[in-house]
């Protein structure tokens, strides 16, 4: 029976010795070191660990991770359905219901050896083949959480009373691929994130230190902005989640309208994909949560694929009036292709690309 011990890994930190698990975000302002996984649909798992130490991500062990072949994946939305969804969102934009909405699909594939599947071994493979600033593992099998992320995007960073978000909008193979549409989309989402943080930050404290910076990542580039503020008196992690979740960059603007459209058009729950994944050190008042993109998770009780445990991965794109359905589909393919190859074990990193 699969029963690996609970573990969380974020960058150069590893946490073991599970002490407590709760769904109450207020616990993140109590004491101790917590690993956090927030599902896009609102589910929250906060796990407090007793032993936290510095430890580099281990080198991949040959045979420790067996992933699905790239051809084994199926999508919750096929190309025809996805492109029709883009057209539907453009119609909503024309009607004035929304300015932008993120349309996502969830990919699923059977695990070749589910009894030995360990997301921390997958994290080691991802660290070598697709290094990312917010990479990590949360392994809580008895609580239904087995997540490996290679996220490039900051959802929330907290240092004392200072909070910061780093929304990504705009993706291309190179900076030359980025369009005026990508910049406009980024600015729209920055405005949304400013509004979200403004709900829990002191009046006048929310600023934008960086707007539409081009940031390189393995195989592609993103436009990234920075939004920062000072938490209002009495506000903590519970208020931060209430004011900002789900992350603005993976919903749309206005957020309430975008969420309604997402529920209408998407056929599978996103789960930890597009949620929040990271750590909180309640003792020091610090924490760092990534947006759960470039994220794999093991589902051991799938209802849609009754053949046994599966690996899941999400991919999507932000849709605006300037979106071309075929181009948006290709963007979702671009975001997924490298990660699926890495997770299969078929991808070989180039020299110098390991870290």
Summarize the structure in words:
A hairpin with a 2-residue loop joins strand 9 (154-159) and strand 10 (162-166). The two termini are 34 Å apart. This protein has an 18-stranded antiparallel beta sheet that branches. It has a single domain (7-75, 105-245, 270-314, 332-344), classed as Anthranilate synthase (4-Layer Sandwich). The protein is globular. It is of the alpha+beta class and 355 residues long. Helix 1 (79-94) packs across helix 6 (325-344). The protein has helices spanning 79-94, 119-129, 180-198, 237-244, 255-265, 325-344, and strands at 7-10, 13-22, 33-38, 44-54, 74-75, 100-110, 134-140, 145-151, 154-159, 162-166, 168-172, 207-217, 220-230, 252-253, 276-281, 286-291, 295-299, 310-319.
């Amino acid at each position: 029976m699969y029963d690996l011990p609970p573990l969380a890994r974020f960058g150069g930190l590893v946490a073991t010795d599970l002490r407590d698990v709760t769904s109450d975000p207020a616990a993140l302002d109590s004491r101790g070191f917590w690993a956090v996984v927030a599902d896009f649909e609102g589910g929250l798992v906060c796990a407090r660990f007793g032993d936290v130490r510095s430890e580099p991500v281990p080198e991949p062990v040959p045979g420790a991770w067996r992933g699905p072949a790239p051809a084994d994946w199926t999508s919750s939305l096929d190309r025809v359905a996805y492109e029709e969804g883009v057209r539907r969102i453009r119609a909503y934009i024309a009607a004035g219901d929304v300015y932008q909405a993120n349309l996502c699909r969830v990919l699923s594939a059977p695990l070749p050896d589910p009894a030995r599947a360990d997301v921390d071994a997958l994290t080691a493979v991802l660290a070598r083949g697709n290094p990312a600033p917010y990479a990590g593992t949360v392994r809580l099998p008895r609580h239904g959480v087995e997540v490996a992320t290679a996220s490039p995007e900051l959802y929330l960073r907290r240092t004392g009373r200072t909070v910061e978000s780093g929304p990504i909008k705009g993706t291309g193979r190179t900076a030359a691929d980025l369009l005026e549409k990508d910049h406009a989309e980024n600015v729209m989402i920055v405005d949304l994130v400013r509004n979200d943080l403004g709900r829990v930050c002191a009046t006048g404290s929310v600023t934008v230190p960086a707007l539409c910076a081009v940031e390189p990542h393995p195989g592609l580039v993103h436009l990234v902005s920075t939004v920062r503020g000072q938490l209002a008196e009495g506000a903590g992690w519970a208020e931060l989640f209430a004011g900002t979740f789900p992350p603005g960059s993976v919903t749309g603007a206005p957020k309430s309208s975008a969420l309604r459209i997402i529920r209408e058009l998407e056929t599978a729950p996103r789960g930890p994909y597009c949620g929040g994944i990271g750590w909180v050190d309640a003792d020091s008042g610090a924490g760092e949560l990534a947006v759960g993109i470039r994220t794999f998770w093991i589902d051991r009780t799938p209802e849609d694929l009754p053949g046994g445990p599966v690996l899941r991965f999400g991919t999507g794109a932000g849709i605006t009036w300037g979106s071309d359905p075929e181009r948006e589909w290709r963007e979702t393919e671009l975001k997924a292709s490298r990660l699926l190859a890495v997770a299969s074990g078929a991808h070989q990193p180039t020299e110098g690309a390991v870290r």
